[in-house]
Amino acid sequence: MLQAIEAEVQSLLDNSTSLQANGNRGVVRHGHLPERHLYTRFVNITVKVPKVRDSTCLKPH
Hints:
This protein has 61 residues and is α+β, with helices and mostly antiparallel strands.
């Protein structure tokens, strides 16, 4: 499952063409969310979801 999540995030980053005004990438990876433990009837798993930040929609202060 972790490999599928990582592949999805990488695909998002590869296909993102958004740029900030200064030319940097607008969509960047930004660490991980806290681990979550999912308990199902058949198996218990721990999920670590990557965080992605889109800074193109942020308003300057």
